[in-house]
Structure formats: C-alpha cells, structure tokens
C-alpha cells in the first residue's frame, strides 16, 4: 500500500500558487474548519444563519471586497480571492455567497461605478462587515433576460422614485444597502441605471424567501420597491445600460469558478475517508475497482477544474481575462462539481443523504450555483457567440 494523495495533489496544483496567495488560502481554510464547520449542518437544517455576526468576522479577516483596493479593502490578487472563495465553499456555498455578493456585487458596483461620496459612505463600512449589501437585478419574470426588467425609476423633480420587485436576492433581508437596477423613464433616457438604496428608505421591504431546499445557510429575499424616493445623487454616475450589472456579474462569476471546486473537493475528501473505513463483504470499500474508478474520474475532473481556475486567475491578474473565458470556467466547474457531489453520494449509500456528511448538502447547494449568475445554458450561448460571432439570445 502506498501513501494516499489528496485529489489535488495528483497534479501538484499548489506549486502553481505563490506563497502569499497560499498563506491567505490557508488562513481562510483554518477559519472554515474552526469556526464554520462545527455549525454549518445546524444552520443548514434550521435555515437560520447569523449573517450579521459572520459579516463582522469576515470583515476582520479582510475577506469582504478583498480583491478591491482602497476604502479598507485588502487589495489581494484575483487568485487569492478565488482561493478564499474555494475554501469558504468547501464549508458551504451559502457562506461563500455572503462574501461573494458583498464584495463582488454590491461593493464592486459602488467601487467601479459609484461616486466618491458613495464610495466614502459605504465601502469602508462594508469592508469591515459593519454594513451588509445586496444586489437587486433578477426579477420574478426576468432572470436570464435582465434587459426585460419591469422595475422603473421615474424622475420627480430632483428625486428618483423606484417601483418594482426583485427576486432571489442574497442578503436582502439583512442588508443595510441595496444596489438596485431599474429602467429609467423615457424623459430620463429609458436606460437601465443602478441606484444605491439604503434599506431603511420608506417603501423598501425585503421579505425572506422560505422553504428552500438549497442554500439554506444563507438569507434569500424578495425586494419590494413601493414608490421608494431617493435623492438625485443615489444613482451610480459612471455607468448606463446593462453593461453596469453585467460587469458586476462577471466579477462574481470569477469567484464561483473557484468556489464550486471547494464543494467538490470537500465531497471527494470526505468520500475517500469514508470508503477507506467502510467494510463491505469483509473488505474496505476503497479496495474495489468500481470505487477506485469513480474516485479516479472525479479527481481528474477536480484537477482539470483547478487548472482552469488558476489560469483564469492568472489572466485576470494580468488584465487579460475576457467574459467568454469566465463563462468557460463557470460552466465547467459548476457542472463538474455537481456531478462529483452526486457521485460521491452514491459511494456513501444511505449515509450520504444525512447531514452527518456534507455530500447531499453540497449537491443541493450546487443545484443553485449551477443556475445563478448565469445558467449553464446562458454560458453555453456566451461561448457559442464567442466562437461563431453570432448571437443566439434573440
């Protein structure tokens, strides 16, 4: 018997990560192991998670907006941010979503497209976890087609008045500020604009969505905007049109490319430990050829996904990462991570459906990760357009 390798050690992907990024990864891994793993099964089962407390802890670790610069943000490399997402999602996709939505959607929108006043007001508090943000783009009838949104922003004097609904919004119920995208009235150009909306503004409410079977360890909400009146300077001044929200989604998808691998790695490592201990027909389950074939195939896909993620991190660090490449990463890594979680469950049999092991929890979560921030089908069409030069969306 030889000394077992971990799945990612097969390709020695650690050798492709520099010392600083590896140190950040290891810090996050220790935090997940010590603080989050002992609680996550309970949070998932009850559907209750202390987001506000965790946000403060994430802030102390420098995780919120960690890849941004200034305003109390750590300014890490893209790869360090991706690896942090991987370790968080090895704990739970819902916990990674808290960090991802805060930093790559809400904070990034203000950092990239906001005014100096908006940045000074919100970013330092959000980086510290003292203020929580959410990102309101998706609507009940418009997910993959955000350009059809019905939320409207009407100019009344110097103010804006927002009316509409958003759906499936992470952190919405606990948020202090919402980045809401709305179509302006014709007199204001009829373009989609982003608005910085304090959630205590009259007319704003965010009822929590209950009875979820996925991402139970996160807060998912509807946003209701019933004549929400905002001052003229609430609009994000540096962007108009769908390029604004789509730039934020591209930023967030990068973290998902890494994050999904964390869930897959956790499933594989759990399964390898289990099959070595489990006795079937008088011998270890790990000694059977079918078991080893499954583990081999899954580890190959995990390793390929990690190589893909690290290449995207390198391109992003060099300022050369294009949206179709992120679609390649999001499509492949979420699809393969879900397949790994499901296959690992088969090796645990009935034990795999319990919360004693993370497999079905990860699989349920990855069902959402597969479809949010662009469904698999949307990313296929993005890649198809890049290859053919022809859009299949309309």
From TrEMBL:
Lyase among keywords: no
Sequence ranges assigned to domain Acyl-CoA dehydrogenase/oxidase C-terminal in this UniProt record: 241-387
Record Pfam families: Acyl-CoA_dh_1, Acyl-CoA_dh_M, Acyl-CoA_dh_N
Keyword terms of this UniProt record: FAD, Flavoprotein, Oxidoreductase, Transit peptide
Residue ranges occupied by any Acyl-CoA dehydrogenase/oxidase N-terminal domain in the UniProt entry: 19-130
Cofactor list: FAD
Residues of the Acyl-CoA oxidase/dehydrogenase middle domain: 134-228
UniProt-listed PANTHER family: GLUTARYL-COA DEHYDROGENASE, MITOCHONDRIAL
Family indicated by similarity: Belongs to the acyl-CoA dehydrogenase family.
Protein name: Acyl-CoA dehydrogenase family protein
Organism of origin: Nocardioides taihuensis
